[in-house]
Specification:
- The chain has 3 domains: about 80 residues, Roll (Transcription Regulation, Sacy, Chain A), CATH 2.30.24.10; about 100 residues, PTS-regulatory domain, PRD (Orthogonal Bundle), CATH 1.10.1790; about 110 residues, PRD domain (PTS-regulatory domain, PRD).
- The protein is about 55% helix and about 10% strand.
- The protein contains 12 helices and 7 strands.
- The strands form 2 sheets. It has a 5-stranded antiparallel sheet, with helices on one face. A two-stranded antiparallel sheet has the order 6-7.
- Helix 8 crosses helix 9 and helix 10 packs parallel to helix 12.
- The protein is elongated, with a radius of gyration of 24 Å.
- The N terminus is likely disordered.
Length: about 300
């Protein structure tokens, strides 16, 4: 995989030593008219991109520093990444980068580097499908809208960027797909786990609704916090890294104070252990579940059915 070091329009943000030797970089392989492969003195493969970067160039020529717009430094060769850069139209790579930068600015977090492959690749296929009038239905669109609201809004903005920059109109389902790529990059996981997480969150919310025989008010801060907690709770479960027990006395107090929330948490515990049979949910995890459930099931948070 590669780690991504970038700059825009000549304003370099590279490591100082890397900056000192960039002018000595020579083209190892021309990927296309806008992308070149080079190797630094440590053997790292570097992909430079920029409009017309390799125009009238050949292998062995020096990189024209003034034309570099982005730089990808790979700690080991990534044939998938190099193929993607070489085959995709440059304007699509630029749009994907704009979407990723926007996402990072909104969530105020650096995304997993793999998104530069996954989201860019998805964008390319989405555009190809749109040209033939073929669209994919997103079966998790409802879950994405409700459990990943910020990411879905980013996905909607991505559609606006694509419409403006590429002149291609994509359906709302694609906003959901872009949102999933962002969620996946946030949690530094894989897409299978991200899809499974969405389904499990839906199941857990259903358990809460069933236990209290009520709908939940999704427009509250407590609900948002609960969903966020579930995302990371499921990530810890997938990695077998539950919170350690260090609040035993507090958990004992909470159990007595919120018996209904405890009953609900126990049902969630049984559900989780059916998904992860070799795992045991710690009391610390149960403590946080009970607290969050108690908050979202207060009278003002419920919508009685």
């Amino acid at each position: 995989m590669c780690y991504y070091v970038w700059e825009r329009f000549g304003r370099f943000l590279f490591y100082e030593k890397f900056l000192e030797r960039i002018t000595r970089m020579k083209i190892k392989k021309i990927l296309n008219n806008n992308a070149a492969l080079a190797t630094d003195d440590k053997g790292n493969e570097i992909v430079y991109t920029g409009c017309g970067l390799c125009f009238q160039k050949k292998n062995g020529d020096e990189i024209d520093e003034s034309k570099i717009e982005k730089t990808f430094v790979m700690d080991k060769p990534s044939e998938q990444f190099k193929q993607l850069v070489s085959e995709m139209p440059y304007e699509q790579i630029q749009v994907a980068d704009e979407i990723i930068k926007y996402a990072e600015s909104v969530i105020n977090k650096r995304l997993c580097n793999n998104i530069y492959i996954t989201l860019t690749d998805h964008l390319g296929y989405a555009i190809e499908r749109a040209k033939t009038g073929t669209y994919l239905r997103n079966k998790l669109l409802w879950e994405i809208k409700n459990f990943y609201k910020v990411e879905f809004e980013i996905g909607c903005h991505a559609l606006e960027i694509i419409q403006k920059e590429l002149g291609v109109e994509l359906p709302e389902d694609e906003a959901g797909f872009f949102a999933l790529h962002i969620v996946n990059a946030e949690l530094d996981g894989n897409m299978h786990h991200t899809l499974e997480t969405s389904e499990m969150i839906n199941d857990i919310v259903s358990i809460v609704k069933f236990t209290f025989n009520s709908e939940l008010n999704e427009n509250t801060l407590s609900y948002e916090r609960f969903i966020t907690h579930l995302k990371y709770f499921l990530q810890r479960a997938e990695k077998h890294e539950y919170y350690p027990v260090d609040n035993g006395d507090l958990f004992g107090m909470v159990k007595k104070k919120f018996p209904d929330a405890l009953k609900c948490a126990n049902r969630i515990k049984s559900y989780m252990e059916s998904k992860y049979p070799n795992e045991e949910i710690t009391d610390e995890e149960m403590l946080y579940l009970v607290v969050h459930i108690s908050r979202i099931t207060e009278r003002k948070e419920l919508v009685v059915g």
